[in-house]
Amino acid sequence: MHDDLLPIAAMERAVDIVLSSPHPTSKVSAALFGRDLNGDDYIIARTNRWPERIEQCFTQDERIGNSSGTIHAETACILAAPYTKDASICVTDPFCPNCAKNIVEAGIKAVYIDHKGFIKDFAARRGHDFENMSLKIVERAGIAIFEVIRKDKIIQPIQIPKEGYRPKSDNPPTIKPLEQSPSMALFLNEVNAAKNIYDADTPFCVALSEDRHGALYSITLSAHLSRGIKGSEPEAPAHQLEQKYNYTIPPLNRLMIGAHKYGHRVLDDYIYLSHIPSGRELINLMGEEGQQTLYFDKSKNMTKYSSPKALMQLTQAGLVKAEYI
Ligand SMILES: [Zn+2]
């Protein structure tokens, strides 16, 4: 038994809104709680949903590249949070491997799952992905997972990291203060510097961001394996998962999650990507406010996860601008 009842209160918040999910068959919600950089406690609850921008331009059953147009509840919470480092998250259902990676990347320290999430149609729907991949992703990162039985106010561990287990972050983003105002010249300077760091096959991104005081930074980072996952791991543990999931966190997702982890705001007009992003990354980007301009290398590099189709659909709908430099 866990003494702290805050996760139960947060789980109630998540459960309270779950039926408001616009998804006709899979209604999921999450509540993220933590402390922002001013020292104030926050709690944010979200359901899975179509981002407003997607809703305005596409129908619910339209695919964006090879991805559904919905943003998952867990990821929606992270993208709405002021500062996610050391926060905790409550989820109504066992989470998918993509959200597991985002939870790790956000620096979240504990995940609470409603026990009813394991009953429903769990085994048919998500059990396989969860047991084979999601659990491993959070376990390797040293995140604790609990099950919450709300009516009895019980919180019981599903998976607790071993005492002192802390995987090192072998590829942290470089966040550099810039003593200037944002400009294209400054941005391109940062992009050129990054091109000298990474080899041509490594997907990376560069962006300008502001902290909560309005100070300017550049953020440079590359794709990497989720924290604690070894390069020798097979891409997905079960054959059927390989089409859908992998252990790599692509750069645009890392950038968005990383900004929330550190309490920064990415500037919409200063995002460079060395490779075309995946459909999933672009959908998550649609969960952010504003209309972003994405700058790409003019050679239009691709990874096996790139979705030029998703990028084309979103640029044609006027939701994002793509420039090749
Ligand atoms: Zn998910």
Q: What topology emerges from the helices and strands here?
A:
Layout: H1 6-17, E1 29-35, E2 41-47, H2 52-57, H3 73-80, E3 88-91, H4 97-105, E4 110-114, H5 122-140, E5 144-149, E6 154-159, E7 174-178, H6 184-197, E8 204-210, E9 216-222, E10 224-225, E11 248-249, H7 251-262, E12 265-275, H8 279-286, E13 292-301, H9 308-316, E14 320-324
Parallel strand pairs: 3-4, 4-5, 12-13, 13-14
Antiparallel strand pairs: 1-2, 1-3, 5-6, 7-9, 8-9, 8-12, 10-11
Helix pairs in contact: 4-5
Zinc ion binds at residues 72, 74, 95-96, 98-99.
**Beta-strand content bin:** 25-35%
Per CATH, what is the topology of the largest domain?
A: Cytidine Deaminase, domain 2
Helix fraction bin: 25-40%
- Rg, rounded, reads 19 Å
Bound molecules: zinc ion
Low-confidence blocks of residues: none
Mean pLDDT: 92
Tally of separate domains: 2
Please identify, by name, the CATH architecture of the largest domain: 3-Layer(aba) Sandwich
First-residue to last-residue Cα separation:
56 Å
Features:
Cytidine Deaminase, domain 2; alpha/beta; 325 residues; 2 domains; six-stranded mixed β-sheet; binds zinc ion
Description of the structure:
About 30% of the residues lie in helices and about 25% in strands. With about 325 residues, the chain is of the alpha/beta class. The protein folds into two domains: about 5-160, Cytidine Deaminase, domain 2; about 175-325, Cytidine Deaminase, domain 2, CATH 3.40.140. The strands form three sheets. Strands 2-1-3-4-5-6 form a six-stranded mixed beta sheet. The protein has a six-stranded mixed beta sheet with strand order 7-9-8-12-13-14, with helices on both faces. A two-stranded antiparallel sheet has the order 10-11. Helix 4 (about 95-105) packs parallel to helix 5 (about 120-140). Zinc ion binds near residues 72, 74, 95 and 98.
